[in-house]
Q: What sequence folds into this?
């Protein structure tokens, strides 16, 4: 009977001690922010398009870390999903069928003669890439535009269109063709 | 341990790792002199031929340019200008396929040569030593010189280094197969090359100048050693032939034994390297003031019957060059390679122009360079790693490149790869290794750009979020402060207790007072009087216009009578009346000019009567409005039948009804509204009925006149009426002004209708729906009136009436629209 009591007491004491230790550690080594969120945020394309249903990339990263589906980032496409899946240690699902993958990088373009200067697109732009003022023509800073589409819908006169970024010698990617060299007979000329 | 110089003197050089010995094929062109090019008919000059940014275009289409005239102007350090290679006319400035493996288009200046080759003014400067370094560098920059060995790095930046230069290395290695351009240049223009070297020496003051040259160019070596014999610090270093000894890092390794660390420039080691052709161009630019407009190009390959080196104008389309060498396409798909076979690229258009870094143009037969061989699996023989001059692991790189594992590629130092193609050359599996690396490099560069962009987007997004948050807070803060201030004010008053109450009481009192005024017209002589004044003014205007065509005496009497009555009422009335009187006086002055009798009288009398009646009451007004609308409709219809009597009678009837109703309605608000509806309905009915029965209408004429005075009294009742009346009066005035021009007969009608219109206007404020309806009605009226006039009868009088009605209708429509808008706005607020 005595030994039983001792055992209970001992276990109790130990559990109290370790509980205290863990409690202290959790306070002492508290992680300020969830590093997982940052890591996911790093992987997202930062278009801030909101197609995932969250107001920006970071909110979606937070949602993913809290168990949201990882296949809602349309601009990132399958490669982003794969990276997040690798990070989270889960199977990579295919892109949510509600979201279509982007055909390629695009930028918004304002057809300036149609613009009525309503500033609605300016308010919609998540990265402040549209300049203009009330009753003044607006225009897009195409270098800053993330191609998120968010300005297209609010335009009352449909003067914004998404245009693919033209290919130039600066952003061209090599295609695969090589120039082989073989020995020829020496022809005296 | 011997020093570097001792080793160089002994001809014992270092070795770089790997390297290959591809078939040289230089025999095709090495024995022939450099040909002088015919002046091409068309020149296409890409505005960017170097690494960096293109300059600003200085010429316009249609300009005549002289040889050597700059076409672009640099505005930034990394900009290099381009020059007109010959004299001629700028025919176009447009996108054109350029010398780039992609075959994409870039902006080019098109020049049609005039065949004269006229030089711009040249400032020859034989004594460059007297120039400052800065002046020389400016000359180099303005001559548009960029590295002519291949990369096209702006030369003026390369020579403007602050580092202490130990070695200036002149690259005459020319290790790539087929190319003999530098070889021939040295053989034919060694003095110029040496001058260029001396200028560089002057600029950089290096300890030693090393000229690296492969041992497969004995004639060039002879010439170089001969002319540099007397110069102490220039050493001609003859190095064994091996590809790619001409690579910058490889040549440094061979000559000095030093390795340029990954990601560093040779200047960090105190070394600057320049190509022989660049030295020649520098000498031309600094001494002869000749910009870089031509260069030696090896045009070779067995598809040409006479391969040879040529002084090609920059901007010469490739086909024009080839045609000078007996170009015979050997196959359907004759390949054209710009640059050497190892590092060049296939052209997909023979209109591509020669640029500053084009050293070779290769037109090989399929025998020389076979079509692509089928790539097979890597057998891990390791030959690629053995030949790699950068000591990389090509097969590892290849796998990572295929897997798009960019991190691994970075770890394997992909960016130290110089694209020399040695690994692909030796690969027994025919794997185009270099191409995989090029693709991977481009992808990584794109990815880096995308990352930078994403980072920027993130920052901008965060900044925007912060801004919105801040704005929101500011707004809230403002609101909070405002509400606090309000509360504080309230509290302080409550402390005083009675004060606050009294303020409230005062407000209440004011409100009550207003109500009282409205209810008890007698107390409110104030407002009435104001209203009356307005009315009077309006009336005055109207009458003024009306009476123009009438006898003065006739008009004067009624108006005077009215004014007298008004004055008797009260002070303010009196003032108003005075105004009225004045107005009337004016009117009367005008009427006498013209003369027409009986009608005038009639018209004058009803007008005041009506104006009074309108003033009676705003409910009446509403009703009247409805009536007016109805009238308008009726008249529209009736006038189609066009008979004066009908029109007049109908007008009168309506007018008569309106006052009648007005009186009854005066009793009560709600009744009034109902009555309005009723009135509208009645109006419609009557419109129809009147066409049928004229008799009834005539009988109704009398009541109008009689009721009018009655209304006038009623007006005094209430200030709202007054305001309305004022508006009515103004409107009337306008209408009448127009109407009187037309006819005396019409005047009566006009007045009636005007009242009606005015009534419309008044009623509009009552309710915005009505207003909208009224607007619609008004528009409709206007249309009808127009139609009716079109169908107008022979009777002049009726036509005139219709005209007037049209005008009225338009005015009414405009008024109604305006009212409707205002009300909408008010309501939305």
A:
């Amino acid at each position: 009977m005595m030994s039983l009591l001792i055992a209970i007491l001992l276990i109790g004491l130990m559990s109290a001690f370790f509980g205290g230790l863990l409690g202290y550690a959790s306070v002492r080594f508290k992680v300020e922010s969830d590093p997982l969120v940052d890591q996911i945020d790093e992987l997202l394309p930062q278009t801030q398009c909101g197609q995932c249903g969250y107001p920006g990339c970071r909110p979606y990263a937070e949602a993913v870390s809290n168990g949201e589906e990882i296949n809602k980032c349309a601009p990132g496409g399958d490669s982003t999903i794969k990276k997040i899946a690798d990070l989270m240690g889960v199977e990579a699902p295919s892109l949510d069928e509600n979201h279509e993958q982007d055909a390629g990088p695009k930028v918004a373009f304002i057809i300036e003669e149609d613009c009525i200067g309503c500033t609605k697109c300016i308010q919609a732009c998540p990265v402040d890439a549209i300049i203009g003022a009330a009753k003044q023509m607006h225009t897009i800073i195409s270098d800053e535009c993330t191609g998120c589409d968010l300005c297209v819908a609010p335009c009352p006169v449909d003067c914004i269109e998404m245009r693919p970024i033209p290919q130039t010698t600066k952003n061209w990617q090599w295609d695969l063709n090589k120039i082989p060299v073989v020995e020829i007979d020496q022809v005296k000329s | 341990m011997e020093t570097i110089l001792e080793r160089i003197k002994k001809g014992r050089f270092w070795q770089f790792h790997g390297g290959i010995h591809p078939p040289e094929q230089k025999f095709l062109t090495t024995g022939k002199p450099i040909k002088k090019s015919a002046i091409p008919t068309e020149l296409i000059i890409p505005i960017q031929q170097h690494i960096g940014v293109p300059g600003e275009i200085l010429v316009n289409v249609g300009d005549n340019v002289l040889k050597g005239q700059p076409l672009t102007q640099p505005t930034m350090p990394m900009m290099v200008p381009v020059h007109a290679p010959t004299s001629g006319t700028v025919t176009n400035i447009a996108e054109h396929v350029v010398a780039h493996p992609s075959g994409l288009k870039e902006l080019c200046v098109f020049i049609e040569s005039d065949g004269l080759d006229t030089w711009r003014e040249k400032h020859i400067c034989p004594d460059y030593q007297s120039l400052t370094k800065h002046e020389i560098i400016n000359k180099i920059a303005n001559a548009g010189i960029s590295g002519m060995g291949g990369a096209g790095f702006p030369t003026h930046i390369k020579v403007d280094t602050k580092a202490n230069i130990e070695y200036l290395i002149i690259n005459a290695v020319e290790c790539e197969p087929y190319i003999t351009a530098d070889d021939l240049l040295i053989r034919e223009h060694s003095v110029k090359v040496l001058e260029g070297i001396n200028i560089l020496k002057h600029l950089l003051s290096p300890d030693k100048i090393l000229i690296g040259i492969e041992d497969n160019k004995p004639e060039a070596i002879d010439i170089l050693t001969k002319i540099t014999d007397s110069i102490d610090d220039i050493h001609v270093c003859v190095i064994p032939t091996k590809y790619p000894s001409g690579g910058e890092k490889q040549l440094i390794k061979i000559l000095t034994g030093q390795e340029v660390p990954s990601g560093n420039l040779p200047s960090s080691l105190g070394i600057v390297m320049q190509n022989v052709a660049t030295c020649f161009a520098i000498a031309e630019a600094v001494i002869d003031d000749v910009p870089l407009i031509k260069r030696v190009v090896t045009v070779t390959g067995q598809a040409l019957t006479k391969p040879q080196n040529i002084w090609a104008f920059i901007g010469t389309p490739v086909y024009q060059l080839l045609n000078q060498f007996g170009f015979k396409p050997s196959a359907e798909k004759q390949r054209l390679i710009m640059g050497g076979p190892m590092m060049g690229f296939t052209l997909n258009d023979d209109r591509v122009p020669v640029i500053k870094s084009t050293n070779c143009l290769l037109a090989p037969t399929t025998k020389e360079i076979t079509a692509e061989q089928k790539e097979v699996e890597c057998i891990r023989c390791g030959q690629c790693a053995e030949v790699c001059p950068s000591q990389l692991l090509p097969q590892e790189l290849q796998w990572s490149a295929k897997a798009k594992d960019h991190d691994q590629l970075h770890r394997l130092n992909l960016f130290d790869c110089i694209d020399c193609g040695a690994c692909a050359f030796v690969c027994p599996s025919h794997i185009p290794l270099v191409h995989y690396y090029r693709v991977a490099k481009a992808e990584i560069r794109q990815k880096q750009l995308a990352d930078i962009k994403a980072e920027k987007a993130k920052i901008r997004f965060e900044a925007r979020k912060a801004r919105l948050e801040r704005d929101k807070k500011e707004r809230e803060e403002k609101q909070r402060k405002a509400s606090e201030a309000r509360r504080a004010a309230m509290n302080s008053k409550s402390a005083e207790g009675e004060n606050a109450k009294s303020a409230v009481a005062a407000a209440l009192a004011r409100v009550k007072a207003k109500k009282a005024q409205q209810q008890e017209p007698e107390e409110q002589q104030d407002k009435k009087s104001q209203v009356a004044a307005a009315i009077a003014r309006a009336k005055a205007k109207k009458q003024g216009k009306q009476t123009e065509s009438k006898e003065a005496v006739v008009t004067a009497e009624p108006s005077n009578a009215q004014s007298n009555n008004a004055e008797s009422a009260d002070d303010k009335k009196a003032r108003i009346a005075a105004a009225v009187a004045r107005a009337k006086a004016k009117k009367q002055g005008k009427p006498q000019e013209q003369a027409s009798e009986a009608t005038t009288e009639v018209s004058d009398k009803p007008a005041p009567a009506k104006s009074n009646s309108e003033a009676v009451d705003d409910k009446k007004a509403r009703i009247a409005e409805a009536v007016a609308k109805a009238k308008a409709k009726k008249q529209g219809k009736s006038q189609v039948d066009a008979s004066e009597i009908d029109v007049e009678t109908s007008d009168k009837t309506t007018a008569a009804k309106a006052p009648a109703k007005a009186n009854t309605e005066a009793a009560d608000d709600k009744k009034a509204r109902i009555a309005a509806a009723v009135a509208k309905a009645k109006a419609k009915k009557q419109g129809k009925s009147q066409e049928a029965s004229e008799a009834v209408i005539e009988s109704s004429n009398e009541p109008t006149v009689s009721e009018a005075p009655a209304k006038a009294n009623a007006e005094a009742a209430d200030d709202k009426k007054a305001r309305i009346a004022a508006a009515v009066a103004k409107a009337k005035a306008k209408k009448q002004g127009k109407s009187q021009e037309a006819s005396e007969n019409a005047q009566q009608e006009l007045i009636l209708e005007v009242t009606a219109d005015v009534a419309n206007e008044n009623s509009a404020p009552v309710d915005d729906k009505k207003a909208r309806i009224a607007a619609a009605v008004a528009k409709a009226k206007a249309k009808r009136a127009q139609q009716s006039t079109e169908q107008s009868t022979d009777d002049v009088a009726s036509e005139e009436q219709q005209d007037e009605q049209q005008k009225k209708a338009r005015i009414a429509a405009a008024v109604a629209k305006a009212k409707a808008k205002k009300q909408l706005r008010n309501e939305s607020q």
